[in-house]
Design brief:
Blueprint lengths: L6 H27 L4 H15 L2 H10 L9 H7 L7
Helix pairs in contact: 1-2, 2-4
Length: 87
C-alpha cells in the first residue's frame, strides 16, 4: 500500500524529525555534563549549544520545545532558557 501525503504532512514530519535530532544531540551533551554539579552542568550545556550550534539550530531548539519539552533531559530543559536566540 502506498501512503499519499501532501506537502503539509511531509513538512510537519520533517520538522518533527528535525526536532527529534536536536533533542537527541542536546541530550548527548547533557549526558557528558551530568556528572558536574547541577548549576555547572546547566551552564556548560547552554554554553556548548551557544558556541557550536548555528543560529537556526538554536532558534529551532528554543521555539520547538516551548509547548512540550518532554523529549529533553531535565538538565537540557533548564539550559534551554540560557540558549541565545538565533535572530
Amino acid at each position: 500500500m502506498i501512503e499519499v501525503t501532501n506537502a503539509r504532512t511531509m513538512s510537519h514530519d520533517h520538522a518533527g524529525e528535525h526536532l527529534a535530532k536536536l533533542a537527541f544531540m542536546a541530550n548527548q551533551i547533557s549526558d557528558f555534563f551530568k556528572s558536574y554539579p547541577e548549576e555547572q552542568a546547566i551552564a556548560a550545556i547552554a554554553d556548548h549549544i551557544n558556541q557550536f550550534w548555528t543560529k537556526r539550530m538554536r532558534e529551532e531548539f528554543r521555539t520547538g520545545f516551548e509547548a512540550d519539552a518532554t523529549a529533553l533531559s531535565p538538565l537540557v530543559r533548564q539550559a534551554r532558557a540560557r540558549v541565545r536566540p538565533g535572530n
